[in-house]
């Protein structure tokens, strides 16, 4: 009997780690799992990811909006609310992630690797090393990019010593001019070229179930937060509409300054204001709360919200 096609796919509104991890799984799927895997995207690819794929001359994965009968290796999330439509307990084949366990279930035992580390790319590196799989230059650059992007060049509190060691080991293969590479990567990450206000919000947006609450959290990481904040009134308006349309209990958006390691949290209503003041101790000034040294949604925002709301 012919096996259904297997895809590697990350979360909706995919970031760089999500897309590149799926590509890495497709490059090494046969040797890791014993079957071929196609990398696909659960949403449009952002400018930072496009920069790296163009640099390495890698074809962009096709965008898939719904699974039909494909088997799936899920990377970079275990949150059901962030997963592509159509994924069931029966077609989940494997999980590789670095977040908290979000609730995905499988009908039968599957390969599952989740570690508290800076990015999913680092987890994949560990798998490849354990299986004595040689890492080529392109794959080394892909993993390095995952690390730099997700840890904000090692400035995020999600960074671990393992990430730093993996980076050093891989750059012996990649031989990148890191200063130049990081500069270009973050310029691409920050670029608003071809980006609408809706895109700014949705580019790195995730939904979470926290107790009985449905919570949306969007992030825009940039070297120039002022370019985002200049559009504050439009962003606030779009956020209010999104909260109503998606029937959310709470909705937050943050412009994260990846140079100074601060965040500008957008406050759209009394409920959000009360919760944010309680958790972060900041003050709402014209619908923005300045959060000093807050850069990680995964470690500095989601756990705190979940503790309050669950």
Question: What is the CATH class name of the largest domain?
Answer: Alpha Beta
**Helix content bin:** 40-55%
The rough form would be described as globular
Average pLDDT score:
96
Q: Give the beta-strand count.
A: 12
State the separation between the terminal residues, measured CA to CA: 45 Å
Radius of gyration: 19 Å
How many domains is the backbone divided into? 2
Oligomer: single chain
List the helices and strands in order. Answer: EHEHEEEEHHHHHEEHHEEHEEHH
Beta-strand percentage range: 15-25%
CATH-defined topology of the largest domain: inorganic pyrophosphatase (n-terminal core)
Specify the number of helices: 12
CATH superfamily grouping of the largest domain:
inorganic pyrophosphatase (n-terminal core)
> What CATH architecture of the largest domain would you give?
Alpha-Beta Complex
Alpha-beta classification: alpha/beta
Uncertain runs are: none
Could you give a short account of the major beta sheet?
Answer: 6 strands, parallel
Strand order of the largest sheet: 3-2-1-4-5-6
Give a short overview:
The chain is α/β, with parallel strands linked by helices and 310 residues long.
């Amino acid at each position: 009997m012919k096996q259904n096609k297997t895809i590697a796919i990350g979360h909706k509104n995919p970031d760089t780690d999500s897309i590149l991890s799926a590509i890495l799984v497709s490059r090494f799927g046969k040797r890791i799992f014993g079957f071929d895997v196609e990398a696909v995207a659960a949403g449009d690819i952002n400018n930072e990811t496009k920069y790296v794929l163009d640099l390495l001359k890698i074809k962009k994965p096709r965008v898939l909006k719904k699974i039909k009968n494909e088997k799936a290796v899920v990377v970079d999330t275990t949150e059901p609310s962030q997963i592509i439509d159509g994924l069931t307990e029966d077609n989940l084949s494997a999980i590789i992630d670095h977040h908290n366990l979000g609730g995905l279930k499988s009908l039968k035992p599957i390969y599952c690797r989740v570690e508290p580390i800076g990015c999913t790319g680092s987890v994949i590196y560990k798998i490849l090393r354990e299986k004595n799989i040689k890492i080529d230059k392109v794959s080394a650059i892909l993993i390095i990019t995952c690390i730099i992007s997700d840890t904000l060049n090692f400035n995020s509190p999600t960074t671990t010593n393992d990430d730093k060691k993996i980076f050093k080991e891989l750059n012996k293969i990649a031989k990148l001019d890191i200063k130049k590479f990081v500069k270009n990567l973050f310029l691409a990450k920050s670029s608003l070229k071809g980006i609408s206000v809706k895109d700014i919000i949705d580019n790195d947006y995730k939904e979470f179930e926290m107790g009985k609450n449905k919570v949306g959290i969007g992030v825009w990481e940039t070297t120039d937060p002022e370019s985002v904040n200049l559009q504050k009134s439009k962003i606030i308006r779009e956020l209010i509409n999104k909260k109503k349309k998606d029937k959310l209990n709470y909705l937050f958006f943050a412009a994260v300054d990846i140079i100074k390691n601060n965040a500008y949290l957008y406050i759209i209503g009394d409920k959000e204001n009360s919760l944010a003041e309680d958790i972060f101790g900041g003050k709402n000034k014209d619908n923005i709360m300045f959060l000093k040294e807050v850069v990680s949604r995964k470690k500095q925002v989601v756990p705190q919200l979940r503790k309050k709301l669950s």
